[in-house]
Write a structure and sequence with these properties.
The complex is a heterodimer of chains A (309) and B (69). Chain A has 309 residues and is an alpha+beta fold. Chain A has helices at 5-22, 34-59, 63-91, 100-131, 137-156, 163-166, 194-203, 214-221, 223-237, 272-280, 296-300; strands at 167-172, 174-177, 180-183, 186-190, 205-211, 251-254, 261-265. A four-stranded antiparallel β-sheet of chain A has the order 1-5-7-6. In chain A, strands 2-3-4 form a three-stranded antiparallel β-sheet, covered by helices on one side. In chain A, a hairpin with a 6-residue loop joins strand 6 (251-254) and strand 7 (261-265). In chain A, helix 4 (100-131) packs antiparallel against helix 5 and helix 9 (223-237) packs across helix 10. The radius of gyration of chain A is 24 Å and the shape is elongated. With 69 residues, chain B is of the alpha+beta class. Chain B has one domain. Chain B has one helix and four strands. Chain B has a four-stranded mixed β-sheet with strand order 2-1-4-3, covered by helices on one side. The chains are: A alpha+beta (309), B alpha+beta (69). The A-B interface holds A 96-97, 99, 178-179, 189-196, 223, 226-227, 243-247, 249, 252 and B 1-2, 4, 42, 45-46, 49-51, 53-58, 60, 64-65, 69.
Chain lengths: 309, 69
Amino acid sequence: MRPYFFGIVLTASLGGILRMLILRSDYRQYPTYPHGYISHLSMGFIAAALGAVAWPALLEAEYVAVTFLAMAAQQFREIRNLERESLASLDLYELVPRGRPYIEGIARTFEARNYIIIASTLVLSAIDLALLRGTSYPLRIGILGAVTVLLYFLINSFPDKRVADIAHVRLGKVHFQGPNVFVDDLHFMNVGLAEAKEVYLEKALGLIIEPKDIDAAATLANPGQRQAIVHLCAKLLGIYKDVDTPEFSPLMRRDIKSGRLGVLIIPGSGDPQALIAAVKRAPVLEGAAAKPSKSYAGRERDDYHGTTG
Amino acid sequence: MITMARLDKLILATVALEEARQYVAAGGSGPVYIARDTEEQQRIAMYLSRITEGMVHDLENGILIIVRH
């Protein structure tokens, strides 16, 4: 394996760096603590090392080594379980929980990123073995480094669907009819405490979300998707709520007739534009995404007027 | 939180005005508190809500209920 040593170390390190680049604390607000980073980075380096040794192992006719890839896949599936379990247990102590479907999406993303790293290092080491063998070390580092940057942009350019892609978001008016709170004509809930009503009238913000097509309507109707949206709003804007004031839990309700949705929240910071931005940039959950328009029956519906994307 | 199809929405307590006493029959869950006026009713409901971490709903017939969602 000696002739491959430099190539393996180089591609494994570049794969590890790539994992570091795509690991960031973003709208998911996770991971936000050093130990989370460390565990994901070390798994990322293991994935990178696996990808880096695959081709050299094949070239050396060490076919058994390739079966290790299958074992690795098993390991990474385990990551998904761990991630899911740890997030789900943390979720019990969130003021506004993420909800299981969102957690599932995050867990799946973390698993998938390891596969992306394996694939990337396979590409890197293939380039190294096929084109750069025998060239000088600085040249190999330079070219493979450039390819890594390219891969990074490629991975980042994968479209991550956001709510803004599938729906229009606008401000609505929060008002009461008796004890019932509405945003425009959308009913939310019955608020019994006079004190709570006053807070709602003074501080609450309401949004109306209009799905662009039947696919969007089906996706946004998913309660898990809705919980993810309110969780993000509460995380990003702050929330006017404590554990003993459930009446201030942010809500998302659906108009059963039109499929429109409403968001009602008392944010910590009352900036309506920030709230709209938070909702627009909320991710569309993989587990909630539905595409009735892809079926014959879906296209036969009277509310089907083509899709927007 | 939106929860699906589970029997976890419990009426923890009922706070009725004196004059609405006849609208609460026995049975069901939680004790029934009788308040002398709306101010007292609001106060009792608020205390119960904070203590039980339940939400207060208004049935609009002089009765407030505290529900765990």
